């Protein structure tokens, strides 16, 4: 409708050394999984095109990544009569062991002097990578990325950030994040369930000489861009989540070109709204991603007094705008509600009461293992370093310090065994799992958590001790958390023996 690329369109393929294995290009939507700037970002991918019964078309992309052998799929769907791009994602841990992952879908967008990011109204602070630094938002008042913003600088505006800068929103109750060009009154908005998609980030090369140099590195004539990064099961980089053996997760994200609304106050995949209150006036702006007949717009006070109650037709080419005088009514006393022609509530918005919120504390670096007083914290620190794939700290140092103090600790023995097993040191791993099980079963032969039995089964299996492995896997099935993976391992053993009926029965049990 606006005759514009709502995602940055780079007319040239001009690789630069940004990806984990080197080449990387700007433009489009980059999918960062299971690690940021994944090694395969510049490699070919499998794809399939589906023509759906409702007239929509889906393009599926598929990859088995080469770091941890997990599988990821993205389905890009355009629906008739809908002004958004729907992306359905599926990820699957194909392996027998827990793996970590992050997911950031990063659209690049054109920027200029009139561009600003659009974060939800409850975002008052942003973090750097690893939450190692923090700034107030949108008005920065301290030092961030070694830049002095003490005068009070609006860092939501591209032109105010002179150096390469990342910022990631703290927790928000809203489902959207985006960016907007005031000069053309248009932008891009991402919408996804904030309970699984809390990640809201902006990255820029900076509005300065360094940024312009990178513009030249990555494009010939399409100019600067920023990345609007959207994280699922992650709110920071690095911030990894766990996928258990053979676990699958799926979710849906929407990328929406929108117009007129400016600073969005609330949004879903169907409508985007702004309620702007200033100078004793309230301005309501509504953008719809499809045609809505007789959309009911209600603006009222929280005491029930009605200021707007009318029906209107809206569509992507025809946003709704209305401004009224409201006197001295405060923003937090107004409620905006939208209803379909069937009287179903489509969206609502009520501002929070204005208050000064405390700035979060940055994350602290891990202590030296010998400086940590408790076994609990040694284990948790080691697990954190594993989960976040830390480049300079070694989780083994923390687990082994814990085991030096308490040789029979269940969790640290299990963790050390798993590290050794991932390294292919199966015999050494076996002794750690056995020690964990010995502690677990001192008072009860049926432990609360059977993960050490499951891991022992794999360490034995990889050494060719099939019968011992079989017994360990079966004991692991006594616990629901490990039942599926353990029955699958048992089915694999029966299949190797060509005991097909037994294998089928075990497969059926792992699917229950």
Protein model, in words:
This is DUF5107 domain-containing protein. It comes from termite gut metagenome. InterPro entries: DUF5107, TPR-like_helical_dom_sf. This protein is α+β, with helices and mostly antiparallel strands. It has three domains: 183 residues, Beta-galactosidase, Chain A, domain 5 (Distorted Sandwich), CATH 2.70.98; 85 residues, Macroglobulin (MG2) domain (Immunoglobulin-like, Sandwich), CATH 2.60.40; 104 residues, Tetratricopeptide repeat domain (Serine Threonine Protein Phosphatase 5, Tetratricopeptide repeat, Alpha Horseshoe), CATH 1.25.40.10. Helix content is 22%, strand content 33%. It has nine helices and 31 strands. Strands 4-5-6-7-23-19-18-10 form an eight-stranded antiparallel beta sheet, with no helix packed on it. The chain has a seven-stranded antiparallel beta sheet with strand order 3-9-21-20-17-11-12, with no helix packed on it. Strand 14 and strand 15 form a beta hairpin. Helix 2 runs antiparallel to helix 3, helix 4 packs parallel to helix 6 and helix 8 packs antiparallel against helix 9. The longest helix has 17 residues.
